[in-house]
Sequence to fold (369 residues):
Amino acid sequence: MIRKAARDFATNELLPGVIERDEKMKYPAEQVKKLADLGFLGMMADPRYGGGGMDTISYVIAMEEISKVDSSVSVIMSVNNSLVCWGLETYGTEEQKQKYLAPLAKGEKIGAFCLSEPEAGSDATSQRTTAVDKGDHYLLNGTKNWITSGGTAKVYLVMAQSSVELGHRGINAFIVERDWAGVSVGAKENKLGIRASDTHSVMFQDVKVPKQNRIGEEGFGFKFAMKTLSGGRIGIASQALGIAAGAYELSVEYSKQRKAFGKQISEHQAIQFKLADMATEIEAARLLCFKAAWLKDQHKDYSLASSLAKVFASEVAMRVSVEAVQLHGGYGYVKEYHVERLMRDAKITQIYEGTSEVQRIVISRSVLS
Ligand code: CAA
Fold:
């Protein structure tokens, strides 16, 4: 039922206009509103806070279907669900959940996760943003980069250094409201892919953050970010899976229509083998996503599994989408056939929420420990 609901939504609401939104970098405001009405922006959150109360497997399925068509929309869905709502629900106080989680889970507000900085991407412990303890509040100063939903979000989860001498153990996580004095947003980034999504720098200048807006104990911020990202990576792995599966479905369809050398190209073994390789890799990626999701639902350790799923699925998304363009020939290189957009969108899945290299750090440390 979830797959069908997500697929119908993607076909009826996202497909019309997806090329134009990509080209004009037009934020999918109307589509995100409808996604919220369907309950997809807080799928896994507890119904007590307005969420859908669904498991992670359901989330993976919905993410796959939405990402087959429009990854600019699915990244908004992924960040809101697995970084913002999950982070708040798991580590927030009851007061924080009532105030912030409820509108986010219902999709009345969009949330953003602010960890990356101009000089701290993969090296996430080197936070330059500072949060100085001033008694009843912290004074927040710094700049965050490449923030998904940075321009539209009303709530930011911000990581900042409070005690340089403590290294990563001095980092705190805060809930910061967009409308507070000192919060500003840079220009929308002009990106290779996921062009309709709203990626901005977010600046904090002498922002007063009340003590009650810190998430967890003093110094919990880096662990908060890592634990939250372990789940976020399942979302991005599912997005990559969807991009690959979308490119594959378009390729199967096209290969049955296009004729060359007197027959449908699907009757040529060169094309059949490409489709066979795509199908095999996509199935493996899907099972890795399901395994990570299942472990999370069983409350078992899923950090390794989510890195395995993300590194594999994102590389499958890249390989499959490049092959899909090749299979479509000249048509693949023009926008109307969608596969060139899927290829451009695929690239970011190897970069955000931990590059493929970061996933290999996580995996190799686990292998060698
Ligand atoms: N769960 C809990 N704790 C964890 C953890 C996890 N998964 N991973 C690390 N930690 C803890 C460690 O135990 C350690 O704590 P202690 O010293 O107290 O034991 C602490 O965190 C520091 O860990 P490391 O020593 O491993 O730190 P490191 O400097 O070697 O970095 C890293 C490790 C894996 C490279 C990490 O920095 C990382 O994941 N970097 C990538 C950051 C990232 O994914 N950014 C994405 C930005 S968000 C985004 O893209 C959202 C969007 O808009 C789409």
